[in-house]
Fold this protein.
Amino acid sequence: MTDSFSPSPGVSAERGPHPLLDPRLPSRDPALARLWIATYRKAIREPETWSRMLAAYARPAGGDAPSEEDVAPFFREADLYLDDLLRLVPEVLARHLEPQARTRRLNDMLSLFRAVFEGPSPRIRYEAQRKLFLSKIFFDVEHCRSIRDGPRHQQRFESLLSAALWREADAGGDVEICCRLERTASGGDLLEVGVPRDRATRCWRFQMRRLPPAEGEGEVDVYHYRSRFKKESIPAPPTLDPGGFLLLAEEPRWPSLGGRSGSIVSKMIRRGLPDPGMVQDVLGAMFIVGDRRQAYSLEHRLVAALGGPLRFRDRVDTLRGERDRAKLDHRSSSGFRVLKSIVDILVEDPSASVPYLFAVEIQVFPLEAYLKTLLDESFASHTAYKRRQFLRDLIPALFPPEIFGEETRLLGATT
C-alpha cells in the first residue's frame, strides 16, 4: 500500500466507499491498513488460517474446500475491464496506463496481497491493490441476488406491460423518420424532424405501436420500446440496413463493459456504491413517443398499470423545464430531455410466501429528444455522455494522478 504522494482533490471524494482505489490508504485510514497488514502476516505464517479465510470468501458456508480457481476468473476479468476502458483514451496514454505484465500474471489472492505489501514500486503496489478491488466488485456483482434474479424480474415487468398496456395497442406499421441537425447562431442544436430524405439527413425506420385514447388521455404513438437488463446489454451505435436506414442495435458497445458486468461495476465506482444491490437501474425500460404531450399521457398509463403513484419515486422531468436538471447525472448535457422515474414492482418469491419488490428505471423520450441522443454531433449524444463519464470519472478514479501522472486528470478536462 503506497503512501508516497500528495492527495488529488479531483478524485479523493470518490475513494471513501472504495478505499482500495486510494494510493494513500495507509495515511488516510491507518486502522484499515493495519488490519490488512495483520491479515497478510497471518496468511504467511498460518496457511491453514488463510485457506479457511479464502473458503469463507469464495464458498457458501459448509461448502467444499476452497480452490484458487474459484476466484481466478474475477482477477482476469479485472484486467479485461481495464483493457476496455483504455480503448477510449489516446493510444500513447493508453500504453502508459496499461497494467504492468507483472501485475497481469498475478491471478490469485495471496500473490496479489504480497505485491500490495512487497511490490518493488508504488505503481506495482497500487495495481495489485486495484486488481484486488476490481475482482471483489466483479465477484459481488456475479453473486448479488437482485442481479442474479434480473432476468426473472424483467420477465415479470414485461408480463405486466403485456397485460395492461400492449394488449390495447394497434400496430402502426413501419414508420420512416428523417432528420437534419444544424447549429444555431448561438451555438445550440436545431433538429428538424420529418424532413425529406437527402444527403444531409439521417433516417431511421421504426415499428410503431399506437395506444388508443383512454381515460381522458389522447392516443400515444410508441415509436420504439425496449427493456434491458444492465448486466447483459449496452446499446451499440445504430447500423445501416440495406435500404440505408439506421437500425437500433442491442449488442454491447465494448465487450467487457457490456457483457461481463462492467456497466454495473462502472456505475458503482462512479457513484461510490459499495454494494451492487444499491444500483437502481439494473433493469430499465425506454419508451419513445411522438411528443411531450404523449410522454405525459404514457406516464399516466404506466402509473395505472404498475401499481399507482405510491410505487413511483425519484421522478425527473426535464421536458417541461430546468427545475429537475440537478437530479440528473452531473455528466448529462444541458440538451438532454427526458421524463423518468424508478418504479418498484412486486414479484413472487420462489422461496417464501411473501412477495418482494424490485426496481425498474423507466425513461420516456419524445421522438425529437431521443433522436438527438443517437446523433454523435448533438450536445445530447448518448455516446458522448458515456465517454464523458468514462474519461472524467472512471479514468482518474482507476488511474489516480498520484501514481500515473496528471495526464489522467487533464484527459477528463479536455473532453
The radius of gyration is 24 Å. Residues 122-142 form the longest helix (21 residues). The mean pLDDT is 83.
